[in-house]
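User:
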Amino acid sequence: MTITAAIVLFAVCWFMTLFVVLPLNLRTQGDEGEVVPGTPAGAPADFRPKRVALITTIWGTSIWAILAAVIIFGGLSIRDLDPWKSVRPQPILTDQQ
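Assistant: Predicted structure:
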């Protein structure tokens, strides 16, 4: 895995984890009964971005490390994910052909 691939994989893992973490323990202004004028009732009442970023970073890094280890050490290949066996090995070309 190249450095660029590792960075892209980390970004994907981090943002996917962020979208899972954002709605956890969400209290809306409508739930609290104090809607600030000009905002929807579904807006967060007490949003803590540092806490969300910390939880996302911890879980995202853990997920990234597992995926990177599987990719680097070859525990999983594209053929393992192909239940219909549609991915065929490429023929080996020699100088005689």
